[in-house]
């Protein structure tokens, strides 16, 4: 009998096929629409084998038997033209001019079944089929097409639904809720970075989905900048693609290049989706503005910049108290990787940096097969310089005790640990003085007299 209800609901998605009551189109998981979608998709997928689950023909056959009213489609609106008309500062708003040149990418059509537009997204099918069966999608091309390319969007939408605490919203309404703000002074929940329960050594703030959507893309760009700044032959990072760690040791040169190509294409699509989703949603179908666009964008770019800097400062502070993890080192170096000028003009950096990175990547391939004979400096025979002593590390808990014990009182066990630390610190300072003396002697003896002739050419 369920198959008959599925057919009835496919024809009339806003009518309950069981009792004839009206249903609002919604992507909220506990809504009546989503519950019917889950019930019927479970019926259609019962008995599928793991091979069937990842078969593209079967995937689309299941999808087309269900309603598609909930699928988000950004229709053909030339929002870049509208933005260009609104802004008239040629120096400040070069980022819009740059995007106009990328219209082919941003306005490239996507399609799911009969739904076609600049960006097309099916949240319910993503949740109840693709994410649910994610473990079966092991083939790279299929996983890229159906899950990886839009998983960041799925997470953003789900987090926004939690933020606004809604029971019944379609995808358009959820995205529109991301555009809401009160004023520059009282920005509202989409820009409110709130302190959360303190987790040791983790940045203790909640970042709303809208800001996180933009900030995470900036972090993706930073993965490219690190190898560029160290003049690596290839712009490769272990976490290049979808956050999955693939060590460069696992790939040969050809695979690395292919991996970088895929990563750049993915981030182009990610950039396209972010801009279409936010900039394209600021206008009604009749081209009128839904919000005060200039104020919204001023708040958005400012908050993106502020969060990046605050997070970087936090991780820089905790590095003084203990060795940093790879993740902490990454965040503490973000500002160094990006640079002051790029952060200052975060808009232009956000929209253009990936294309510059792509150019560097392509140019590096032109010289990829050129072999160079090493030049050995015959004067490179100096002894090892003296090694700097290691600074003793004090834990956050002990540092806190040290600063507050005169107020809260002494603790015998902690006093013992603190005494050990202070002795190590005293010894370190002695060793540091000795190191400075030895380093000066080394420099005077070797670096002033026995430099290679190659260095003297530049004196």
Question: What does this protein structure show overall?
Answer:
The chain has about 450 residues and is mainly alpha-helical. The protein has 3 domains: about 130 residues, no CATH class; about 190 residues, no CATH class; about 60 residues. The protein is built from 21 helices and 6 strands. The strands form 3 sheets. The chain has a two-stranded antiparallel ribbon with strand order 1-4. A two-stranded antiparallel sheet has the order 2-3. A hairpin with a 2-residue loop joins strand 2 and strand 3. Helix 5 runs antiparallel to helix 6, helix 6 packs across helix 18 and helix 14 crosses helix 15. The C terminus is likely disordered.
Properties at a glance:
two-stranded antiparallel ribbon, 56% helix, globular
Q: What's this model, at a glance?
A:
Helix 5 runs antiparallel to helix 6. The protein has 3 domains: 1-70 and 122-177, no CATH class; 181-372, no CATH class; 396-456. The chain is globular.
Set out the fold topology.
Layout: H1 2-11, H2 32-45, H3 50-53, H4 56-64, E1 72-73, H5 79-86, H6 94-101, H7 103-106, E2 110-112, E3 115-117, E4 120-121, H8 123-131, H9 140-146, H10 151-164, H11 171-177, E5 194-195, E6 205-206, H12 209-229, H13 253-279, H14 293-318, H15 326-332, H16 334-338, H17 340-344, H18 346-366, H19 396-408, H20 412-447, H21 453-456
Antiparallel strand pairs: 1-4, 2-3, 5-6
Helix pairs in contact: 5-6, 6-18, 10-11, 10-12, 12-13, 12-14, 12-18, 13-18, 14-15
């Amino acid at each position: 009998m369920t198959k008959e209800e599925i057919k009835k609901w496919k024809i009339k998605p806003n009518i309950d096929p069981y009792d004839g009551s009206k249903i609002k189109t919604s992507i909220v998981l506990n809504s009546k629409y989503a519950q019917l979608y889950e019930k019927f998709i479970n019926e259609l997928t019962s008995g599928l084998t793991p091979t069937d689950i990842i078969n593209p023909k079967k995937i689309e056959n299941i999808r087309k038997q269900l309603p598609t009213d909930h699928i988000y489609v950004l229709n053909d609106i030339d929002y870049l033209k509208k933005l260009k008309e609104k802004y008239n500062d040629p120096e400040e708003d070069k980022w819009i001019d740059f995007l106009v040149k990328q219209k082919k990418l941003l306005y490239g059509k996507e399609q799911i079944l009969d739904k076609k537009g600049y960006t097309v997204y099916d949240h319910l099918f993503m949740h109840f089929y693709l994410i649910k069966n994610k473990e079966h999608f092991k083939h790279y091309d299929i996983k890229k097409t159906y899950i990886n390319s839009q998983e960041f969007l799925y997470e953003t939408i789900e987090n926004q639904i939690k933020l606004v605490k809604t029971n019944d919203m379609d995808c358009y309404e959820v995205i529109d809720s991301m555009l809401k703000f009160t004023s520059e002074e009282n920005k509202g929940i989409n820009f409110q970075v709130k302190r959360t329960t303190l987790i040791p050594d983790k940045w203790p703030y909640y970042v709303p989905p809208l800001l996180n959507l933009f900030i995470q893309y900036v972090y993706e760009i930073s993965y490219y900048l690190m190898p560029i700044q160290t003049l690596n032959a290839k712009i490769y990072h272990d976490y290049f693609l979808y956050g999955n760690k693939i060590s460069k040791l696992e790939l040969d040169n050809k695979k690395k290049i292919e991996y970088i190509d895929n990563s750049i294409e993915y981030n182009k699509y990610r950039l396209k989706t972010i801009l279409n989703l936010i900039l394209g949603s600021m206008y009604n179908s009749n081209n009128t503005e839904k919000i005060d666009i200039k104020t919204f964008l001023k708040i958005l770019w400012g908050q993106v910049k502020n969060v990046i800097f605050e997070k970087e400062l936090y991780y820089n502070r905790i590095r003084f108290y203990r060795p940093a993890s790879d993740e902490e080192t990454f965040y503490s170096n973000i500002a160094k990787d990006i640079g002051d000028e790029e952060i200052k003009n975060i808009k232009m950096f956000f929209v253009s940096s990936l294309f510059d990175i792509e150019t560097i990547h392509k140019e590096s391939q032109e010289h990829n097969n050129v072999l160079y004979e090493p030049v050995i400096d015959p004067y490179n025979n100096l002894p090892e310089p003296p090694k700097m002593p290691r600074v003793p590390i004090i834990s956050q808990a002990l540092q806190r005790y040290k600063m507050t014990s005169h107020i809260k009182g002494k603790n015998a066990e902690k006093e013992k640990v603190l005494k050990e630390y202070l002795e190590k610190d005293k010894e370190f300072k002695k060793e540091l003085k000795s190191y400075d003396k030895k380093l000066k002697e080394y420099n005077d003896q070797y670096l002033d007299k026995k430099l290679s002739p190659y260095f003297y050419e530049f004196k």
